[in-house]
Amino acid sequence: MGARAAGGRPVRRIAARVLVLALWAPAAAAQVVEASSTTVLRLQPDWQAGDTRTGFWGTELVGLSVRGIEMNGVDDLKIQLSAWGQLASLSDPAGTGNGTTGDIDLLYVQGALFHRHLALTLGRQLISGGAARVLQLDGVNATVAIDKGFGVSAYVGAPVVSRFSYPVGEVAFGGRAYWRPSYGSEIGLSFLEIISGSVLARQDLGIDGRWVILPNLSATASGIWSIPGSAFSDADLSVSWQVLPTLELFAKAQHTSPDLFLPLTSIFSVFSNINNDALGGGAFWQALPRLAFYGEYQRLWVDSGKGDEAELRATYRLTRKANVGLDARFLFVPVNGVIDLRAWVVYPLNPKIKLSGDIDWALVQRTPINGGDDSVIGTASVSYVIGSGWNAMLSGSVGTTPFFQARYSLTARIGYDFPFLNPSAKATR
Amino acid sequence: MTRRPRMALWVLAGLVAGGAALAGSGSGLQFNPNHAGHTKAGVDCLACHEAIFDQTELGQPGPLPKEKVCLGCHKKEKDAGKCGMCHLRADKPATYVTKPPSLLMNHAKHLEKDEKCEVCHLALPEKGQLDKPVPPMSTCLGCHDPHKKQFDNGQCYACHVDLTHFPLKPTTAFSHRGNFTREHPQISRSTSAACETCHQQTFCADCHAARTRPFGPETLNPDRPDRNFIHWGDFITRHSIEARANQAACQKCHPVSFCENCHRQQRLTSDSSNPLNPHPGGWLTPGSPSFHGTEARKDIVACASCHDQGAQSNCVSCHRVGGPGGNPHPPSWLSKHSTSEIHSKPMCLSCHP
Questions:
Q1: Which residue of A has its CA nearest to B303?
Q2: A46-50, A132-136, A188-192, A284-288: which range is least confident on average?
Q3: C-alpha torsion angle, residues B87, B91, B95, B97 (rounded to 10)
């Protein structure tokens, strides 16, 4: 798809009408139909080629979920659509020139056959799990639940072309065999291959597992092995232990080889073997019913040097929907570092009106960025539930950064949740 | 900083402080149920909630006591005008807040087996609580074989009504507390099916459709500063440091051309018409601390983010076989690759004709 609308072409118009008709027919037979529209208008300066210009972006997002469609022999039949279009006063960085752009994020039909032993998804979708990580794909995905928790999934299609037209590849296929002994525990073996211009761009084998050892103790591990690179491109291990209902501890280790994330069709994939590693842990503590703390530390091995990363957060719930928080993040790598401090508040004045605000202060250590070493940005927002499916939000931010002496933005959002088209509908099971 | 932004920041700081100071407490409860007091007085649960015996589905009216039930004992207080004893807002007394039920639960059937409410209701709502305590799922799984089996098979909808609409935040096996935004990739790599019981793909796409969307969730939701969005605040200033800390993390969503196109627009790449050379002195001098070969070994992704033009890459002109740049492969290259690969891979032929 990758529809970058040039505006008003008859073919596109006809395709749009066909799409509407194709979605409307099953919608009429569905138990649940939900549709939403979100319009976002944004005004902010953009830094292009050394000049600051004020830009305007108007974005329309639409979502459609058609579920509970009755069809003999097919369970859980549904159609999902998520798409957007944008009009901008400044040209898109991809160089489309006229600032008009849009695309479909998701558009798929999903259903289960043979008493839910076979699940099929057809269309633009996200493939997740195992070696696929999260792969946006135009294609088909089939999952077969065999028995006793064993199953296998397989997919084939075209990786979604990035809005920067990067040649990820023309064909991707792969699969995952899994064993799911209980709801929270699962182990899997997976495979992914991407072909670009009839040449191998990626070929990965994955092994992953999550095990709930005790109700309050779980371990997660995964590794993705690049077959051409003969090395792990990505591996991790983490253990989470809920010592008390109010206290959780976790430890984790992570390894990545960033060069193996480059497609094999890139000349840069042959220049280096890089290993990035991280080892650390942290805790979440619900000190009081309203007060929670979170802390995490990681030792980093990057760029042939060492680094540190830490985060501390305190959140206080004023009411069920109101909270204030403080977050401090420290990141140091061999070449540079940054301390980022943030404070926020979310406070509903009443069930309809909600105020929120935050201040973010980033302090660059060692090497200045664009001649500056700190930035401060504050944002204040008010959102309003108008009723009858309508909601609105107005937000403004001001600040100063190394790239903007005075940075501001203004965002307005208007949302509308269309009512259930079939008012007697019941939620899907 | 100019005077105007500074003033705005002070105003904002005032908003944060004022919001915190003004905020009161409350849980959405209209009544002070005082369960603790009733329990202490030896009042049986069913004295007030008798109609629960007949409730076959949550949401059926009756189990929450009507005023006349309360007045059976508290008439004297009402006559004395002490509305605040039960109503949390004595000036504006209201009835119960009702919500659509999110569970399929037959109280009548459960009470046939055992009339002890406390088997499931380990805690009861009290004044000042933020969340109404509900029986933990472990109580369901602890008593009933069928429910344990349903849980293990992921058959959530035997009890839960549409988890995509009535999500429950898990507190144990899939705890979302702490910084789950950061931890979820590892967990979902194995258990995406479990994630899908509550989250549809559209939820994932809000962040993971980065290939097709030119805006992130923080752009659409500036009114949710309490969420752990990755690019919150002034990410542009931080991005080069974040990328150095975990180069692979960026690539999971953004192809290297994402960097290239933005940097080209800012005239930071050799591919732009008037490049501003970002490289330090000594970049082309062998032996220099900032020699490009050494830097490329450390962070090849940064090189690729600007210079990856396929076989037309400017690396090829010097590093091709016989070129002045010499062999660019890392030391371990030959142990993993044979020379026979050259003829099967078009990219190799760029330098090895």
A1: A268
A2: A46-50
A3: -90
Q: Would you state the pLDDT for residue A363? A: 94
B278-283 average pLDDT score:
78
> Between A and B, how many residue pairs show a Cβ–Cβ distance under 8 A?
433
Least confident of A20-24, A42-46, B176-180, B297-301: A20-24
Question: Which positions ≥6 away from A378 have C-beta within 8 Å?
Answer: A357, A358, A359, A360, A397, A398, A399, B8, B9, B12, B13
SS3 A132: helix
Report the alpha-carbon distance of residue A322 to residue B224 in Å, rounded. 11
**pLDDT for the residue numbered A93:** 54
CA distance B134 to chain A (A): 15
Segments of A366-418 assigned E as strands: 374-387, 390-400, 407-418
pLDDT tens, residue by residue, A274-332: 889 999 999 999 999 889 999 999 999 987 789 999 999 999 999 888 999 999 999 99
**A84–B233 C-beta distance less than 8 A:** no
What is the secondary structure of A191-251 as a DSSP string?
Answer: EEEEEETTEEEEEEEEEEEEEEEETTEEEEEEEEEETTTTEEEEEEEEEEEEEETTEEEEE
CB of A303 within 8 Å of a chain B CB? The answer is: yes
Residue A270's SS3 state is helix
- Give the pair of three-digit tokens for residue A267: 């000349």
| Residue B286, phi then psi, degrees to nearest 5 | -55, 140
Region A408-422: what's the mean pLDDT? Answer: 85
Average pLDDT of the segment spanning B283-304: 83
User: pLDDT tens digits, residue range A129-153?
Assistant: 999 999 999 999 999 999 888 999 9
Give CA–CA dist B116/B57, Å, rounded.
Answer: 19
User: CA A70, CA A75: separation in Å to the nearest integer?
Assistant: 8
Rounded to whole angstroms, the Cα distance separating B58 from B69 reads 21
- Contact of A322 with chain B, judged by CB distance below 8 Å, is answered with yes
Say yes or no for a CB contact (<8 Å) between B347 and A270. yes
Angstroms from A18 CA to nearest CA on chain B: 22
Identity of the residue numbered A422: N
Q: Which of A42, A344, A400 sits opposite B1 (nearest CB)?
A: A400
Quote the ipTM score.
0.83
C-alpha distance from B45 to closest chain A C-alpha (Å) = 25
Which of A150, A256, A345, A367 would best serve as a mutation to test chain B binding (most B beta carbons within 10 A)?
A: A345
pLDDT tens digits, one per residue of B195-246: 888 888 888 888 888 777 878 889 899 999 998 888 888 888 888 888 888 8
Short-list B26, B269, B296, B304, CA closest to A351: B26
Please tell me the number of Cα atoms within 13 Å of A84 on its side-chain side.
25
- List the single residue in A180, A362, A395 with the smallest CB-CB distance to B223: A395
Q: Considering CB atoms only, which of A38, A200, A360 is closest to B232? A: A360
Answer yes or no: do A163 and B24 touch at CB < 8 A.
no
Query: What chain B residue is nearest to A104 in terms of C-alpha separation?
Result: B212
